[in-house]
Amino acid sequence: MKRVAILISGGGSNMLALVNSMTGDHPARPVLVASNDPEASGLRRAEAMGIATAAVDHRRFGKDRAGFEAELLRHILAARPDILCLAGFMRVLTAGFVAQFEGRMLNIHPSLLPKYPGLHTHQRALDAGDTQAGCTVHEVTAVLDDGPLLGQAQVPVLPGDTADSLAARVLVQEHRLYPAVLRRYAAGDRTPILLP
Question: Which domains can be identified in the chain, with CATH numbers?
C-alpha cells in the first residue's frame, strides 16, 4: 500500500477528489495533507476525514525559501510518503526539494501542457483563440510545469466563455483525471491517460 502526502494552498477540491478515491482496493492511502497557508480550508476538511495535517506559513520565512522548505520537508518526511501529490499548491519548489522526491511527485495543472505553464492559463487559452482547453497531470521536475505527462483531459472552449466559466469546467475534469492517474501510478503504471 503506497502512502500519499498531498500539498494544498486553499480549499483542496483536488485533494478531496484524491482522498475520496483512495478507498477499497485502491493501491494507496492518504497519510498527510500539508499547506503553506494555516488558514487553508482544505486543512479543516482533511482533519474532518481523520487525515493528519500540517501547516507551514511561508510568510513567516520571508525570502528564506530554504528555511520554508526545510520546515515543510520535516513534516512530510515524518509521514513517510511514497508519493507526493501537489493539488493546488501555489508555491514554486526549489530544485533541491524536488530532487528528494524525484519520480515520486505529481502535479495537476489547468492547461494542456506544454501549453501555458504558470498562471492565468484559462485567460491565456481564450486570448489565443484555442478551441480546446483542459488539464494535465505530470511528474514534477525542477522545471516549472514540466516533466513526463501522465494524463490529460480536454474541455471544449465554448462561445462566450470567460476565464471563470472555462476554469469551472476544467476543474470538473481535474477531479476525474487526478484520481485516475494516481490509482494507475500507485500501482506502478506510468502509461499516460487521456480522458475525453
Answer: 1-101 (3.40.50.170), 108-196 (3.40.50.170)
Residue with cell 478507498: 23
Which residues are annotated as catalytic?
109
Q: Is 35 annotated as a binding residue?
A: no
The pLDDT assigned to 42 comes to 98
Cell 475520496 found at: 20
Q: pTM here?
A: 0.96
Buried b vs exposed e over 18-27: b needs ≥16 C-beta within 10 Å?
A: bbebbeeebb
For residue 196, name the pLDDT band (cuts at 50, 70, 90): confident
Tell me the DSSP string of 57-92.
Answer: -GGGGTT-HHHHHHHHHHHHHHT--SEEEESS--SP
Q: Does 36 carry a binding-site annotation?
A: no
**Is pLDDT at 17 greater than 90 in this prediction?**
yes
5 has which bridge partners?
Answer: 32, 84
Is 14 assigned a ligand-binding role in the annotation? yes
